[in-house]
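tool_call: predict_structure(chain=1)
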Amino acid sequence: MRMKDLMKKGIVTALIVSMSATVFTGCGSSDNGSTASNQQPETKQDAAPQQSEAKQDADQPASEADQPEQTGNDKPYDGVTLKWALTDNAATGEETQKMVALIKEMTGINIEFSITPTAAAGEIDKVLVSLMAGDDIDIVSRTPIQFEEFYNAGVLTPLDELAANVGYDMETVYSGAAVKFDGQTYALPAERDIWLTYYNKKVFDDAGIPYPEAEGWTWEKYVETAQQLNDAGKGVWGSFIGNDAVHSYMYATQSGVNPYKADGTSNFDDPAFADSMEWFFSLGNDLKIQPSSVEVASGTYPYNSFMIGDNIGLYVCGGWVASTLTTLEKYPRDWQAGILPMPYPEGSEPSSLVIDSCYAVPATSSNKEAAFEAIKCIAENKYTLGYGRIPAKTLTEDEARAYIEGTLVPMFEHDGITTEDFMAGWFDSSRNYISEKIVGTADTVINQIITEESLMYGQGAKSLEDTMSSIKSRADEAIKEAQAE
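tool_result:
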C-alpha cells in the first residue's frame, strides 16, 4: 500500500506521533534491517558501539551554520557529526563499527546512530515514519525496491547535483547500478547479493557423481543432477529451493520476459509466467527432487536446511548463504561446500538474480553535502572490511582477483573454494545480473500478490489457470491504482 493511501486512512499520523518520541533513544548501529526475498536472517553481532570523537547532543543535530568552513583540503567535513538510522543489532555490530572508523579516517566525519527497530510484517517501515515526521537523519540504507516507497513519500534527496558539485561520476563508478527514480539518482549501491548454487561435496562423493561445473550450468542440468542424487542416495534431497514468490517467476525473468507490457499493464498473461510457475512447483510436487511446497510451508524444512543438515545436494539461494558457511561455530558441519553460478534457462544468456544494498541521503538531513561524502565512502569501501561482501562498484578483473585471493579464498579455506569458483559465481562480467524482485509500477503490491497466489497454487488450492488469471487481474488493478495517485 502506498504511503498516500495510508495517510488518507489516518494511519501514518498516529504512527508518527508514537514514533517521534522514541526514535532517538540511544546510540548504536545496525545494518539496513532489510530482508531479501530469499529470507536472509539478521545476524547478531557482539561488538559494543563505538562513540564518535566529536559527539554532539542527540537532540542537537549539526546545522549548516555549525559545520566547519570548507578550506579545499581533502577532509572538508572534518568534525561534522551525522546520524545514521539503523537497528540496534546492526549498530552494535563489528562490521558497522569498522565502517564508522573508516568513515572517520577517510573523511573526518563522526557518526552517531538513530536507533530504529525493524518493522514487523505488515507494518510501515519505522525509519520511513521517522523521516515523514521530519526527524533529522543523514544516512539510510535499504534495497532499491524498498527505497521506492521512500521516494514516493518524498523523503529522499536527489544525488545528481551533489555528485556534480564534487565531480563524482556515479554512472561510471557503479556501472549504471545507482538507484534512479524518474531520471534522478537517489541512492548509491554498496554491496550485491548475487545468487549462487551451493552443493554438498559429501553428498556427491557418496553418490559417486562428479561435482557439477560452472560452464553450461542451466536449470535443465540442475534438475538432471538433482534427480541423479535422489536416485543414488536414500534420504537425500537432490535439490532445495524455498517457497518465496520470486522462485515462481525466476525462470521467466531469466528468460528475458518482462513483467510489464509496453502499455504499462502487467504481462502475467504471457505463457512464460504460467510455465515458470508450473515448472518451479513441479520440482517438489511432481519430480520430488526436493520437499513439496506443503512441507516447506509447514516449517518441516526451514530456509537454512542446507546449512544445518547433511542430506541436501544442491541449494539455490542468495549470496548471503556463503557467509553462513564460514561460521562453523554456528553451523558446525563435517562436510565441504562448493559453489557454482545460479542456473539459467537453457537457450538463454547466462544470468543470475541479484539484490543491492544501497545508501541514500534523506531530505531531512541538515548536512546533505557531508552525508553524500559519507555514503560515497560506504559504497566504495565497505567490501574492503573483510566480511566477504561483493562490491557493487565496478572492479577490474585484476582488482576482483586480488580481492578474492586476499579475502574470500582464506575465508573459505575449510571448503576449498577457489578463485575461479568465485570469479564464475560473482565476478563474471559477461553474465546478466537481474533484479531478484519485480521492479516497476506497483511492484511492492504485485510481489505480495504473487506470494499469496503462488502459494495457493503450489499447495493445490487453486488451478494454474485460475492462479495466473488472478495474478494478472489483481496486478493490473494495483497498477491502475498506483497510476491514479
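agent: The chain has two domains: 3-193+356-394, 196-355+406-435. Proceeding to next step.
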